[in-house]
Write a structure and sequence with these properties.
The protein starts with 16 loop residues before the first helix and ends with a helix. The radius of gyration is 20 Å and the shape is globular. The protein has one domain (18-261). It has helices at residues 17-44, 49-74, 81-87, 95-125, 147-155, 162-195, 199-210, 218-235, 238-261. It is mainly alpha-helical and 265 residues long. The chain is built from nine helices and no strands.
């Protein structure tokens, strides 16, 4: 009796420019709708502005999480943890991985918000980059108040507001899981088959453009998106992206917790 043949996973197909534009462009439209349509609609109906913001971005992020899992089925794969870990390249973090992550964490924000921020501010001041007047203070570079005060105003006060922290934490988790599973898990490995060693430039640039719903931040985000894309592609490990993304975005979560505790603000 012949032994049954082992089941083989479907081979990944290369993702060129047209497919890449589709895979980045459609989610970008969802976020544009969430930020520029749903958020102001909720605010106009009495929802506090930062909760409206979390809803406007949280729903598209939830869709990215679900789509990442559904995509496994569309590729003809199972949706168990082992398959997800292999397909999304959720590898272990060895010493080199931690060093690469640390480098990306340092280089991305330093260049993005240290060197590019003055350029962005100048372009905004000159009217070259327009910022809508209706954008809430916590999301606008034109705000006359600090970020903590702007967020406090957007949630009706931060001191002791743990309900807000839970909401922010949920969206934070959706952000990290949704974007890393979709961009670095689903998309990046297929782009590597099309663009080779230059994948990180294509991927990082498109990921920056995905944030077009806040076009005034694109120049600031580009160094971060390129740095994260480089280390993930270099190490073939999405876990690095989860670490870098979490540290970069987690500063806001820490600031909110300190403000809720009354340590700052």
């Amino acid at each position: 009796m012949l032994a049954a043949a082992e089941k083989t996973e479907p081979e990944l197909k290369p993702m060129g420019i047209p497919a890449s534009l589709l895979f980045f462009g459609l989610p970008a439209l969802l976020f544009v709708a969430g930020f520029h349509v749903l958020m102001p609609w909720l605010i106009a109906r009495g929802v506090l502005s930062y909760y409206a913001y979390l809803t406007g971005l949280g729903l598209p992020l939830l869709m990215l999480v679900l789509l990442s899992v559904v995509w496994l089925r569309l590729e003809g794969r199972a949706t168990d943890w082992h398959t997800m870990r292999e397909r999304f390249r959720l590898g272990r973090m060895d010493l080199r991985a931690w060093l690469w992550s640390a480098a990306a964490i340092l280089v991305g924000p330093v260049v993005g918000f240290g060197l590019m921020r003055p350029v962005t501010d100048l372009l905004i001041d000159q009217g070259i980059i327009p910022v809508p007047a209706w954008v809430p203070a916590f999301a606008s570079p034109l705000a006359a108040v600090d970020a903590t005060t702007a967020i406090s105003d957007g949630v009706g006060g931060l001191r002791g507001n743990w309900a807000f922290f839970i909401a922010m934490l949920v969206v934070f988790c959706l952000n990290i899981i949704g974007e890393e599973f979709w961009w670095r898990g689903v998309v990046l490995p297929r782009q590597e088959k099309a663009f080779g060693r230059w994948t990180w430039i294509v991927h990082g640039s498109l990921w920056a453009l995905f944030h077009v719903y806040k076009w005034w931040d694109l120049l600031n985000l580009l160094p971060i998106t390129l740095a994260l894309s480089f280390v993930c592609s270099k190490r073939r490990n999405t876990t690095l992206g989860i670490v870098v993304h979490s540290v970069t975005n987690g500063t806001g979560l820490i600031s909110a917790a300190l403000a809720i505790l009354g340590v700052i603000g």
